[in-house]
Design brief:
It comes from Mixta tenebrionis. With 404 residues, the chain is an alpha/beta fold. It is built from 15 helices and 16 strands. The longest helix is centred in the C-terminal third of the chain and has 17 residues. The radius of gyration is 26 Å and the shape is elongated.
Length: 404
């Protein structure tokens, strides 16, 4: 199967531009061995490359390219399939854009096409090339420093205070994980993550129950979350709890139950954020929307968790606007390397900015992910890079500190 891959990267500052011809010569020989062809554009700073060939071969070549220390900030822009090669000459065709008139370079690229069908401007590959040549993507392209540009230093004082408390004889336990603003060194909220008391995954315990029992446990177990929050003395912090959307519909008087337990444990509604997951099907949307209105009328904030993981996120935004959305970790993972993920995150940021909805990036594991997301305009983060969940305790945060 013929595969097409496009990436963009940045030439390292300490690599002389005069080595470009040697690099291309070696790439030509290697590509020929793997039956990979394509085109390489260079504008004096950035590379833009189209690779075409058998899927496994293209993947192997790209892995070698990714490991090359002479460039950095590799972003995969497109990975697709085609019936024929667009640029079928042996190896790699180089276009040094500094040597071309910008008004003629696109036609020069066209002239190198080898497909029997004429290349047109509505071809995705040509559209990417045109955007690069015209430098129209710069506002969406962020240069991310190396991972070691920052150290992550655990707050020793907080670490000494983060002893676990006894939850008592409860069937369900909770681990707490902070949502943070790294630059203000501030914990924005604590999320209470439900755990089975015997250590077994929740899905194993829930798989033995009917849906009505799952919804009842999902809601009623929040009593334990509020009690633990009280013991941990979270005064001044908000507490985020997760709920299946249908728990608010299927359990009678769900909102009244939550309000009663909040008061019972010395908390206030304005301190609570209910995170509803996007990846559960909401079969009774009108009743769910009514429950959301009741929560917000009582002072409880609402967030959509795992945004992007299911099919309901955009539909939910048309029916009600939450106070916050949390972008799913599968979109966040390796976002600094993925053009499609970057485009999705930027679209979410623009949408939420128009609606005045706050954003949290969850599941952040790598410094490069955090740096790219922060450059894109996200300021609240959650993930093991900063603090892993801690059972029955508030974990200490590892705050970023710039090297040098």
């Amino acid at each position: 199967m013929l595969s097409t891959l496009i990436y963009r990267s940045h030439l390292c500052d300490d690599v002389p531009v005069k080595t470009l011809e040697e690099m291309v010569s070696k790439a030509n020989r290697l590509n020929e061995l793997y039956d990979v062809t394509g085109i390489l554009l260079f504008n004096g700073t950035h590379f833009f490359q189209v690779l075409e060939g058998p899927e496994d071969a293209v993947h192997t070549i790209y892995q070698r390219i990714s490991a090359d220390p002479r460039h950095h900030n590799l972003v995969e822009l497109m990975r697709d399939y085609a019936p024929a090669r667009r640029f079928g000459n042996t190896g790699m065709e180089l276009f040094d854009l500094r040597e071309y008139d910008p008004n003629t370079v696109l036609q020069a690229v066209f002239d190198k096409g080898t497909t029997k069908y004429q290349l047109t401007y509505d071809d995705r590959v040509l559209l990417f090339i045109r955007t690069f040549v015209e430098a129209r993507e710069k506002e969406n392209y962020f240069e991310v420093p190396p991972a070691d540009a920052w150290d992550f230093i655990v707050d020793e004082e907080a670490s000494a205070q983060s002893e676990a408390i006894s939850p008592g004889a409860a069937r369900w336990h909770y681990a707490f994980q902070p949502i943070i603003d790294p630059f203000s060194r501030r914990i924005v909220s604590l999320e209470a993550l439900m755990h089975n008391a015997d250590g077994a995954p929740l899905r194993d315990a829930f798989s033995q129950l009917s849906s009505s029992e799952v919804y009842d446990i999902d809601l009623k177990s929040k009593k334990q979350a509020f009690a633990l929050a009280k013991k941990l003395d979270i005064e001044g912090l908000t507490l985020s709890i997760n709920l299946l959307p249908m728990s608010l519909v299927m359990v009678p008087d769900a909102v009244d139950f939550l309000l009663a337990e909040i008061e019972e444990n010395g908390l206030v509604p304005e301190q609570i954020v209910v995170e509803v997951t996007e990846n559960e099907v909401i079969s009774r949307l009108d009743e769910f929307a009514t429950a959301i209105r009741q929560l917000k009328a009582a002072g409880i904030s609402v967030a959509i968790d795992n945004f992007g993981a299911g099919s309901a996120g955009l539909l939910l935004l048309t029916r009600f606007q939450p106070d916050r959305i949390k972008i799913d970790r599968n979109i966040i993972s390796e976002v600094h390397k993925s053009g499609p993920k970057q485009a999705i995150v930027q679209a979410v940021i623009k949408c939420c900015s128009s609606l005045e909805i706050a954003i949290t990036a969850e599941g952040v594991e790598k410094p490069e992910e955090w740096m790219w997301l922060e450059a894109a305009g996200i300021y609240h983060f959650q993930g093991p890079l900063f603090a892993a969940p801690k059972l029955n305790a508030i974990p200490a945060v590892a705050w970023p500190e710039k090297n040098g």
